[in-house]
Amino acid sequence: MRACWKEAKPPEIERRIKANNHEYNAQFEYADNYICTSKYNIATFIPKNLFEQFQRIANAYFLCLLILQLIPQISSLPYYSTVVPLVIVLTMSATKDAIDDVRRHISDAQVNNRESSVLRSGKLVQERWHKVIVGDIIKMENNQFVAADLLLLSTSEPNSLCYIETAELDGETNLKVRQALVDTAAMGNNEDLIGKFDAELVCEIPNNRLSKFEGTMKWKDNKYSLDNDKLLLRGCVLRNTKWCYGLVIFAGKDTKLMMNSGKTVFKRTNIDRLMNVLIIGIFIFLLSICLGCTIACGIWETLLGYRFQVYLPWESFVPNTSLGTKSGSTAEGATVISLLVFFSYIIILNTVVPISLYVSVEIIRLFNSLWINWDNKMYYKKKDTPARARTTTLNEELGQIEYIFSDKTGTLTQNIMEFRKCSINGKSYGTPIDRFGNPIAVTDEGPLKVDFSENPYSENNFEFFDHTLQDEVRRGNPKVHQFFLLLALCHTVMPEEKEDGVLEYQAQSPDEGALVSAARNFGFVFKSRTPKTITILIHGNTQVYDLLCILDFDNVRKRMSVIVRDPKGKIQLLCKGADTVINERLHPSSADLRELTNHHLNEFAQEGLRTLNLAFKDIAEKEWEAWQIKHHEASISLENRDEKLSAVYEEIEKNLNLIGATAIEDKLQDGVPETIANLALAGIKIWVLTGDKQETAVNIGYSCQLLTDDMEEVFIIDAEEFKDVEIQMKNAIKQINESKKTMNHQEEGVRVANGSVTFSKENDNVSLEGNQDTFALVINGHSLVHCLMPDLEFVLLELGCSCKAVICCRVTPLQKALVVDLIKRNKKSITLAIGDGANDVSMIKTAHIGVGISGQEGMQAVLASDFSISQFRYLEKLLLVHGRWSYLRMCKFLKYFFYKNFAFTLCHFWFAFFCGFSAQTLFDPYFISFYNLFFSSLPILALGIFDQDVDEYYSFRYPKLYYPGLVNLLFNKWVFIFGAVEGIITSIVLFFIPYGAFHWAVSPWGSDLADQQSFATVVSSCLVVAVNLRCALETAYWTPFNHVVIWGSIIYYFCFFLLMYATGVIWYYQYIGVAYAVFASANFWLCLLLTNVILILPVVAYKFYMTNIRTSLSDRIRMKQRLTKSRSKTDLPVRRQSTLRRSTRSMRSGYAFSHQSGFGELITSGINMRERARSNDAKTPVILTKVKKLDGASGGKKMAVSPTPLKSNLPYEEEMIIYSEKL
To answer: What strands, in cross-sheet order, belong to the sheet with 243-250?
Structure first.
């Protein structure tokens, strides 16, 4: 198997490549195209895995213990009692790691063994990906993955264009366009010419910048500039292009895809890290006990032990032994014995942290992982994709997540845009209404969606429920006709007719495609285009419009326009864009219509729809000719061309006539708003890190309930310069602090703010809906560059952590990882990153927990993740149910495990006071070996696997139950100390009550029962019964298996020792007959009853007090009390209601076209056109009709809810319950 590492080479300064020249390129030792995401190979697995495992302090501790047990002079227990469990633990962990790594090897092999057509010696040969090297020329065909980072040379399309899908890189499914140099494009598909291609390239070194590339190429005495538009990146898919050739520039681990993948890190849970600290503390405690026993042994041997050498002679190597083998003083002999006793007690008392602890932990984690894998409610039937726990070591950490870092495209959204509503000439369409004009809810039963079957170009997946709009189209309403005509003409969409006659659109952004698709379904079909014409089909009649100019979209203009000449020779400017920019350019005659349209826009915005305004302008022939001259002069300018073109555009885009507005749903994945609302109620803060622009991200923030109307302020950080960014951030922090001061200085009593009630009376200082987290932060990528610098990162940290939600826009994959790392380094919080594309891999690997979504954007994120799900909504169950249960089970398990082992181990310590501190064990060696294996392990394993405090339904209903995990409430140092102290007290009771009961005890036959073996049997019996009853008290969720293992362990103990200690049944053993003699004694049963009553009764009383007096939230829920404070989506609808606090303008600026400029320049240049469309019939005459405005006609597939105050079914007294405990 191939090694995953190579000797380091000198760092690159620049990369030099000669095409088709392997000898020249080999001198630089560039990486080949082999990738390796695995951690081990056959040679390195055992040493590397053992090194990693012995980094766990407990494993190193048991290794040292094993070495001590190999010394016969100090070992009172056989060495195999440690060897066997240690080997089992190491083997189980190594097997799990090996399985995980084998999966990585299989995945790597699948990728490395893909085949590509590579040009070798002037001929195309099929070559596996891992044999491709820098300087090779590859031929790719349609729908193939790009094997490496390539310089595009030539393609099958006109002017060497090609289209690629970058979903693996950035999660976007809309196509991108790339174009080769004109001179290289001339080689076409000629293998001889391409085989002789000998250009020399000088370019940048490998880096992770997906959107930037710089280089130069020398060929035939010419020098060419290279940029990102000529680069095909590994992970892209070739679309709508028959073939293309590319020169390999970066291969394997040097590709931008792999550079963004980050390193695979070894992840440990928060409990694991705490366990390491506790192990050190326990070891110090153990050393102190052993040291005390050592000193006591030295004193006892000096004063008394020396005189008993007739019965217990000292060893031959001990000075002043009675055997006479070594001379010396009594003090010297006692010192040697006490030193040996020190190590003996370390071996005896090591069971305070037995190795079975880690075996049990691994078993519990395995089963908790299987519960995730077997959960049918997290199975996505459409994609046949179940949830998967790709690691078994991080389950309980799912119950402690405080920060979630999420991608947007493909993670929160489906990256599918749907035309939902529109406003035309002051009338709103999209909400189905009855004959009385009342809105009808869209359900499975009705209303029926509009039937477009009479249109041969309609799409089956297009849904619209308002029949009145189709009726207006059929009646020939001129305003409606003009509305859809604009949608069919004003765009940069590229049409493609498949071989089967199906018309498909390729849009630079999915929402632009949705608008053209809506026009198509209503009978205004965009059919084809040339550089100078647009052909549309209006209800079967073909019309050809002359395309005079495209005023393309960019992020500053927030609009696009086209100037067309209709078949009658009339020139019009058609414009669509954000309402903020369109309204500024309207003619005064559109004032009344603007008010009506704005009202509809507000309604659309409340539903989270993305809106655009549509307007037009008639242009006179002379005005067009004069403007065309100015436009031409600006377009050929060599200086400030963009600024001059913007000024020319601004000149003609004014005095527009408003037509209406569109409302598109950026379709969220099912259940996203509810999921985010519930996670927020659980106390989890969500940060969205997206490559989208600000308006798009903010729109989605409101749609998915990440941003809400209740928030005091949404801070926007968008400055370009360092100083300006610093000022914006500090002003935001100042405003937050002032708000907190205002809240703290308000008068006592009940006050209302933002719809939330706070009761600030001195003795009941509890907030039903706190105000401290009512801020949100939106920050742009160019501002984030400054924020992540050392001088500002702590300011960003303070501001971000003071806000309930944070959205970072236009961020790079590296910035995503840096933001996650900032929180991870500086906050004692557990982080989770979730994404679906290769651009999310870095943050997934950086976070404590990485979750990959197996969607349409590829599998890169899944392969790098710890858990995989198919829909974002499943994250709610993963955290609030599986994560919380796993955390609860592990905390209960650890607390109980330390309790029972302190109780067991310290019995040896109390016995030391009665055996001269000689390191003699109290219990039978077989009982010591079997205690954690058979008599007490299965009940706690059952608890760790099956236990639940509340069921799944209430876990969703009351997300506040998640809070204990956020603050490490259920297992921390104090919980451990409490459990250890309880174990110490239990050991005292277990030892001294039987000691007192059997000190003068005799059997019915008159024989003495006060021997060491009988006493050990009594103590061990009381111990087994007590710890199993204690486990029963900890169990909240009983299954048949719990009953079997708890009561079965007690019964098994008695049966086992009755059989083992029976006279001559198996073999002759020193404990023969002890069990029968002890169990036949009434003293034993009375002692067993008394001991367990004393141990269990205080625990029952404490639990009664905590359950009935100091009731926790889970206790209240188990008692089925309805809590207003912790209601979730089951009780309260998550739809946003309109408020006066926030302006909806931000919602209506969602002109979410591509981040780059559109296809405008390509269209007008003609380089992507094959043939000119033909003109056909003239357009239909326009008939004017009256327009009647319908009130309340807002809402989409999901009906708008009337803003009636929510009514509760609870009595007033229950509504006003204020709980005094902190959650």
So the answer is: 123-128, 115-120, 137-141, 243-250, 149-155, 231-232
Q: Transcribe 424-441 into DSSP letters.
A: ETTEEESS-B-TTS-B--
**What's the CA gap between 205 and 1108, in Å, rounded?**
68
Query: Per DSSP, what are the bridge partners of residue 217?
Result: 201, 224
Tokens of 1073: 């007959």
Rounded Cα distance, 770 and 774, in Å: 8
**Tokens of residue 230, six digits:** 């000529």
Instruction: Kindly name the residue from 407, 552, 666, 924 that is annotated as catalytic.
Output: 407
Provide the edge-to-edge strand list for the sheet that holds 713-717: 388-389, 867-869, 849-853, 830-835, 401-406, 685-689, 805-809, 775-780, 713-717
How many other C-beta atoms lie within 10 A of the C-beta of residue 279? 17
Terminal alpha carbon distance of the chain = 53
Residue 136: predicted pLDDT = 93
Q: How far apart are CA 942 and CA 1034, in angstroms?
A: 11
839 is in an annotated binding site: yes
Helix (H) or strand (E) holding 132: none
User: Considering just the CA atoms, what is the radius of gyration of the chain in Å?
Assistant: 38
Question: Residue 911's pLDDT band (boundaries 50, 70, 90)?
Answer: very high
Mean pLDDT score, 12-34: 90
Least confident of 188-197, 831-840, 1122-1131: 1122-1131
Burial class from Cβ neighbours inside 10 Å (0-12, 13-18, 19+) for residue 1140 reads exposed
Instruction: Kindly write down the DSSP assignment for every residue of 1110-1172, as one continuous string.
Output: S--HHHHHHTT---STT--TTTS--PPPP-SSS-GGGGG------SS--SHHHHHHTTT-SSP
Rounded to whole angstroms, how far apart are CA atoms 771 and 1218?
16
Does the pLDDT of residue 418 top 60, yes or no?
A: yes
pLDDT reading at 434 higher than 80: no
pLDDT tens-digit series, residues 784-833: 888 989 889 999 999 998 888 899 987 877 788 899 999 998 988 899 99
1132 closest CA partner among 1206, 1033, 1186, 1046: 1206
CA dihedral 1048, 1050, 1052, 1055 (to 10 degrees): -140
Which tokens hold the place of 1044? 């079997």
Q: Is 1191 annotated as a binding residue?
A: no
Does the annotation flag 409 for ligand binding?
yes
Alpha carbon distance 489, 491 (integer Å): 6
User: Residue 457: how many CB atoms within 10 A of its CB?
Assistant: 16
Asked if 984 contacts 991 with a C-beta cutoff of 8 angstroms, the reply is no
pTM here is 0.75
Annotated catalytic residue 407: yes
Whether residue 170 has pLDDT greater than 50: yes
Q: Which residue has the tokens 């240049």?
A: 1165
- HEC-encoded secondary structure of 1009-1022: CCCHHHHHHHHHHH
How far apart (Å, rounded) are the C-alpha atoms in residues 990 and 307? 32
The span from the CA of 633 to the CA of 424, in Å, is 37
**Does 451 count as an annotated binding residue?**
no
**HSE, side-chain direction, 13 A CA sphere, residue 447:** 23
Q: List the one residue out of 655, 657, 634 whose CA is nearest residue 549.
A: 634
Helices (H), 913-948: 925-930, 937-946
Distance CA 896, CA 982 (A): 10
More confident residue, 711 or 585: 585
Burial class, 636, CB count within 10 angstroms (exposed 0-12 / middle 13-18 / buried 19+): exposed
CA–chain centroid gap for 719, Å, is 29
Helix (H, G, I), strand (E, B) or coil at 77: coil
Q: What is the dihedral of CA 976, 977, 982, 985, to 10 degrees?
A: 140
Is 50 exceeded by the pLDDT of residue 887? yes
Tell me which residue has tokens 């009771």.
989
Q: Is 690 annotated as a binding residue?
A: yes
